[in-house]
Structure formats: structure tokens, C-alpha cells
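Researcher: Quick sanity check before group meeting.
Model: Go ahead. Protein one:
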Amino acid sequence: MYAIFRAQGKQFRAVEDAVLRIPSLAAEPGDTVKFDDVLLAEQDGDVHVGAPCVAGASVAAEVMNHGRGDKIVVYKMKRRKGYRRKQGHRQGYTEIRILGIDLPDEPQEAGATSAAAAPGPEASPKPGAAPKAEAAPEAEAAPEPVEPPPVDITPVARKLAEEHGLDPGAIEGTGKDGRIVKSDVDKAIAAKEGD
């Protein structure tokens, strides 16, 4: 039995009686902490996958002690500039011992698969009239309006087109990658005045 849980923004694999080092917690040694963000759990071959978390699952742990990791040296320099900085750092951590993994009685996939399987037969065509009647309102729903792709136009050309009441989508661009430039708008204005 194991579980993948999230603590302090990082993910850890929990097995009963395992000792883990996680980012520092605000808890005293000897305290019991509970992690509810269980992303995945396995028990007797049954895998519980969360979406994003497994409902009702938790990991209980005991805080053993706090400490600081190995020292790393951060060194920066810029050549020929006389700039050098040397700094050491030891990252703090909390050492915990996993007491137990609490999982829900019902596997989460069973509920998810039954919910996913329920719409399947309704969506498939059947001789019955009820599924067709339910599918019809969904089909009659108004389609979402498709927005035209944004027009690539320079700011000067956009302002000039707005002043003369031209639609930038109707102007053919001759700039890089088809971008509309001021000269393209000038040609469109000349063509409009010629009409």
C-alpha cells in the first residue's frame, strides 16, 4: 500500500513507517499532521486516482524533528568587472514518519467509470424515443460564435483604418508574415476614394 500526496507544493510517496524529509512545517516534534491532498493511492492492486485528489483519502504522519540540509554555495561573478558574490545556503526541512494511509471504502474509479458509462448508451443511437428526445435539445443549443482570428496590423495602420472607417480584416497585408502596414491602408483608402 502506498500513496502519492502533496505537501508544501511538492509531491511525495508515502509508505507506512517511511521517514520523509519535506519542506519545513509549522509543527512541533511529536505532533501528528494529516495531509488531505492525496493524488494517487494503491491498496491490494486497486489504484485510486484523484481528479485532482482522491476524495476521502488522507495520510497521517508524526513530526520527528526539524533540520537543515547540506550546504550549497551560490557563487556569481562578472568577468573584468570586479563583481564577485559568494553565498552559502542550507535549506530547512521537517522530518516526518508516516503513521498510516486512510483510503475511502469505495474505489473512486468505480464511480467515475459508472458515471462515464452512463452517458455512453444515451449518446449511441437506439430505437427508443427517449434518448432521441434528450439528444434533440442538446443539438438545438445555439452554437458558440466563432470569433475571427485577430488581425495582425501595426498600431499606426490600425489608427488610420479606424479614421477612414475601413475594416482591417478586408485589407491584404504585405508586411512580414502578412502583417498590415501603413502603406497597405493607404492603398485601401485610395481604392475606396477611387470608387
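Researcher: Fine. The other one?
Model: Protein two, sequence then structure:
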Amino acid sequence: MKVNRLTKILYMKLFAAFALFFAANSAVFAADGSDSGEPIAVLAFGDSLTAGYGLPAGEGFVDQLQVWLEEELGAPVQVINGGVSGDTSTGGRSRLDWALAPIKAGQPDLVILELGANDALRGVAPEITRQNMDAMLKTLTDRNIPTLVAGMLASPSWGPQYEAAFNSIYSDLSEQYSVPLYPFFLDGVATIPELNQADGLHPTKEGVAIIIEKIGPYVKQALSR
């Protein structure tokens, strides 16, 4: 009787240990999509900078980021190109719902929100950009979709008042919605001729590689959240 009782206790402990192991790993699989066999889905939602303007297939932001993430995570990743060249924050706000809809039933694992560059180029009133970015972040956070805000900076040519009003949008909203911020999408690339195409605005393949090197760790960390 003593042996049987000890055996029973041992089996109960082993069962409890396996149950804990399964529960812990199920949480991990659910977080990265491995349980369903689906790749991790990242929506790069922005303008020509995420669309890969002027670059052949394989050289743009989404392609290079996907390769980087798969190497870093050791898991299949799909970075979806939600960039529209020339788009403003107003345009992005109007198309966010339908851009999300086909991705994992409207729940991508991460959205990189990169908009505002064209607002700044055109001198759109900063309060309009702020309202649009605010609305998009509200939609994303209300739906519990992890989001990384990719900040943008205004040209000093619009004057210090415009520059200050525009540049503060991203940090303010990042804090308001408790979402991570990558301060400047073109960090290390803007104004460097050899890293930009002939228009001086859009990065070359080499410029994109620098962007990925800098923003990649932020994306990886945002996915881990």
C-alpha cells in the first residue's frame, strides 16, 4: 500500500509539472502564432517610406525588415506592405480599417504606424496631423493591437513654431496611449546624399538597411510586449 501511494503521489507531481509546462508554452505559441502555423504578422502602415518607393522588389522597407525579423526571431514572419506613396495622415486614417481587416481577422501581431512625412512636406496644419494620428492610435489600442509609432520630423523651413508643434505629436501620443515610439523613422539617413535616391527624400537600398538596423530592435521589442 505504501508503494502504491508513493507511486500515485509521484505521478500526480509529474502530471502537475507537465500541465505547467504545457500552459507556459501554449502562451508562447499563442503570442507568436506558432500554434496555428501562421507567421507572425506585422503591418507596416504608412506612406512611400514603407511602400518602398523607387526600389525594386526585395530592397524596400517591408522586404528588408521581414528578412531581419526572421533571422532575429528564428520564426516565420510576414511583413505586410500597408504603405501608399504620397499618403497623408488623413488618407491613412480613412483606410486603416480595411487595411487591418484581412490580417488575422483584423488582429495583426504588430502595426508599425508611419505617417506624417507628407503632412510636413505640404505644410498641413499640425493640429490636423495630431487629430488623425490620435484617431488611428485610438482605433488600434481599442482593438488591443500592439503598435509601434514611427516618428517624423518637420523641416525647419516651416519655422520654429510649426516645427515644435509638429514634432511633439509623436512623443505626446506615444505617452498618451502607452505605445512604444521610434523617434525618427529616417534617423541616420535623412539629408545624407549617398543614402537617398535622386529626389533626396527616399532612401536607397543601403539607406533602408540603416533604417532596419536602427528600428529593428524597436520592432522586436514591440513584438515581445
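Researcher: One line on it for the slide.
Model: Residues 6-35 have pLDDT under 50 and may be disordered.
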